[in-house]
Each structure stands twice: as structure tokens, then as C-alpha cells.
Amino acid sequence: MSNFINTLVNTLNGYLWGPIMIVLCLGVAIIYSVVLKFPQIRLFKSMVHYLTKGNSSENGISSFQGFAMALGGRVGVGNIAGVATAIFYGGPGALFWMWIYALLGAASAFAESTAGQIWKTEDNGEYCGGPAQYIARGLRCKPLAILYALAAVVAFGLTGPTVQSYNIADSMRNAFNVPPLVTGIIVAILFAAIVAGGAKRIGSFASYVVPFMAGVYIVLMIVILGANITRVPAMFGLIFRCAFNKEAAFGAIFGSTIMWGVKRGVYSSEAGQGSGAQASSAAEVSHPVKQGLAQAFSVYIDTLVVCTATGLMILCTGCYNIVDGAGNALVEALPGIEAGTGYTQAAIDTVFPGLGSAFIAIAVLFFAFTTLLSFGYYAKPNVIFLTGDEKKAKIICAIVVGVQVIMTVYGSANSSALVWNIADVGVGLIAWFNLLGLLFLVKPIAALLKDFEKQKKLGLDPVFVPEDCGIKNAELWHEITNEHYSDLIAEKNRVMGAAESRKD
User: Could you give the CA distance from residue 324 to residue 326 in angstroms, rounded to a whole number?
Assistant: First the structure.
């Protein structure tokens, strides 16, 4: 049975993660970057600004909590074990292609989170939304929306939890000799307890844990780079040579360098998957672009900061293995150690002997656990979309949480290769459907950004009125603005009326 599952999963990944997927991921990111004139770069100041602005309401979480929840989903084992896997199969140059995807993919994250806000709905007093809603209501393609929702329930309810729980259990076993199954059961119980509290409890938990752990992780990277400062120039030289096929020793894996860099960039940052849009849809903001900018910044934190920290620690200490497509060793600095958390643990141990295993175990616990919590929320909007019935959705959501609990335990006791491959199937499915949807939503997203920037130039705090941007099927926004932002609407009408009078 195990061999059958491995064969099936590998076959699916071969189709889902072929060259076409890489072109699609990069293509959508490039299209949005060019059409929107690189908002992820020119509006960087606004990205930081809107992280902390805005308060929660009875219906939605704060902008920062939405950011933290999405960042909790983005910052997970992909930032530690995923980077190691990319280096193992793609060499040092894979890190460069992760950077490239982050810079471009931030535009995809901006677009999907803005779209999630535009076409969000309300369920049981809470905002919810995501790709299923914006594909159905914005693109008006319900069959594709249904496919995304089904794939998302599979990805977040069935395949996603396995890789998170495996890496938590693996790191706890390495550091503290805790049996994986015991770790899996404890994590599953804690997961169920917090997810039961809904989006607000998840957002609150993530807003405390994620920034703290990310900060500690960055400080550790700086210390390790400082201890290996003489190796740093050569390390960056190696990264760039490998990224452009200028290192003869790794020429045979150049294709894998790009593929694994983008693949792990997509997995870690989630830009293009649409998952971050589900967290951003729950936020209370006056204009969708505000949350889109905040979510674009989360891609930078995830990949350019946390993933880079892992990659640089591994590479500057030389604690990694690399294989070619046939599995032959090109570099074997850590014999017998699988690609995963072990690389980072070994890197830390070179500077702080004995600390690596314990620190990474704790970091993985928090990073992966917040990702699990995000998965607990992400499945919900898709179940609601598929059922269209509050009572049925409540029952099915409870069943999905039960499945997530089971898969959390299951993943903790399985092999690294299997759980990563299972997770890649889920990510591949939702990325395909979401990216296809985003391809046809460029026009409304561009209209929203133009409206936002127009209001900013007039000195206004931007507020969204669907008709002003030619947006349809966004009826909830009339209720939102009337209830929370009537003063902003009045100020907008006054300033724009005065501007029109001056023109006349």
C-alpha cells in the first residue's frame, strides 16, 4: 500500500509541478508586476504603514491580525526544512530563485488578497472569502471556483497538515528524543483547541507568536554569519554562480536549481496559492488595497527574511548535501542526514554546540503550529462556498477539523519524502486553479489600485465604493462602508466634489 501511495503521489507531482507550472507562477507574477507598475516596490512605504493601521470589529479581525494569520500560514516548515530541500535538489543557486519569486510573487499576493477583500462575504457574523469567491463573483466562472474550493479543502484539510506535523515531530525527536507519535497527538489536541475559537483566536495567537519567533530567528542568523564572516563573500559568489549555471560542479542540476527555487518559493511564500487571500478576507479595512499591500509585505518577511536566514546559515557553515537527478551525491557534508531541519540544526551547532537541535525544534514547533492553525481556518471559507448553507457548512467544517487532527497525527509518524510529496500535491492543485483565475482579474485589480492611489493623492484615507471602480457583485461593501466608514465616504465626496468644481 505504501509503495502504491508513493507512486501515485510522485506521478501527480510530475504533472502538477512540470515546467508549465513554473512558467505560470512566474508569468502571473510578472503580468501583475508590469501592469500594476511594481506596487510591491514603489508602494513599499504603504505596505509597512498598513500593517498596523486599522482595528478589528465584530465582523472582522484587524489588518495586523490578518497579516499575522497569513504570515503564520506562510512562515512554516518551508522556511526551514523547505529551504534545505531546495538546496539538496537544486544547489545553492535555488536560494536566488526563491528571492526572484518572492520579489515578483509579492505582486501575485497583492492581487489575490485585494481580490479576496473585494468579493468577501459574511458568514455567521464574520467576514470570509478567498479565491473561490473572487473566481465565482469576480470572474463569474463558478466551475473553476468549485474546483479551487474542492482542491483547497483537500490541501488544507488532508495533505497540508502532514508535512507540518512531521517536521515538528522529527525536530522534537532529534532534540529531545520524544516519540513522533506522542508529539503528533499533543500537537493535534492543541490545534483542535485553538481552531475551535475561530479566526479571531487564531489571529490573536499568530500576532504574538510569529513576530517574536521570526525576530529571534533573524538575530541568530546574524550571529552565525558574523562568526563565519570570512566565508560570506564566497558564499554569495557561489549562490549567484549556481543561479546562472556558472559553476561547473552543479551544471548537471541547473534545471533543478530554477525549478526547486520557484517550487519552494511558491510553497513557502504561498504567493499564487490564494491561501493568504482567505486570511486577508477576514480583516476589517476601508479599502481592499490596504490589505493587499499588507499581505504583499508578508511575502517579503517569509522569503526574503526568514527563508534567507535559513539558507545563509546552511550555506555559510557548509552544512548541506546536494544530489543530482539520479540521486548521486554532488556534495555530502552531512552523511546520512536527510534534507530537512537537520541541516539548520547542524549549522547552528557549528557556532553554538548542542543548541541547534533544541532551538530548531522550538522554532519548528511554533512556525509549523501557526501554519497548522492557518490551515484550520483556510478550509472553512471553501466549505461555506461549496455548501451555501450555514448549518451544513458548520457540520462539514467540524468534520474537516477532525480530518486535520487525524492527518496531523498521521504525518508525525511518516517519512520525510512522502509527507513533502503529499503536501506538494495539495499546493500544486490550489496553485493551478488560483493562478488561472488571477490571469483574468487583472483589469479590476488595476482599477482598484488606480482608485486607491487617486484618493491618496487627494490626501484622503481611501475608502472603497464598488461603483466608482466598475466593480460588480460586491454588495457587502455597501453595508461595510455605511456601518464603519460613513465619515470617510462623506469626506471623499466632499474632496472629490471640490476637485471636480475646480476643473469646471
Answer: 5
Please return the burial class of 468, using the count of CB atoms within 10 Å of its CB with bins 0-12, 13-18 and 19+.
middle
The SS3 of residue 246 is coil
Task: Decide: residue 446, CB within 10 A, 0-12 exposed, 13-18 middle, 19+ buried.
Answer: middle
Q: Quick one: which H or E segment has residue 1? A: none
Question: What are the φ/ψ torsions at residue 345 (nearest 5 degrees)?
Answer: -60, -45
Angstrom distance (rounded) from CA 414 to CA 436: 33
Q: Which residues of the chain have pLDDT under 50?
A: none
Q: What is the distance between the alpha carbons of residues 97 and 265, in angstroms, rounded to a whole number? A: 8
CA nearest neighbour of 187 among 7, 452, 409:
409
Beta bridge partners of 127: 122
Side chain identity, residue 46: S
Find, among 266, 272, 270, 265, the residue nearest to 310 by Cα: 265
- What number of other Cβ atoms are within 10 A of residue 297's Cβ? 23
What's the CA gap between 273 and 256, in Å, rounded? 21
Is pTM beyond 0.70? Reply is: yes
Q: With contact defined as beta carbons under 8 Å apart, do 80 and 378 qualify?
A: no
- Residue-wise pLDDT tens digits, 254-303: 888 888 888 788 777 878 888 888 888 888 899 999 999 988 988 898 88
Closest listed residue to residue 184, CA positions, set 198, 201, 166: 166
What pLDDT was estimated at residue 13?
80
CB 372 within 8 A of CB 205: no
Pairwise CA distance, residues 414 & 95, whole Å: 27
Give buried/exposed letters for 43-78 (b at 16+ CB in 10 A, else e). bbebbeebbeebebeebbbbbbbbbbbbbbbbbbbb
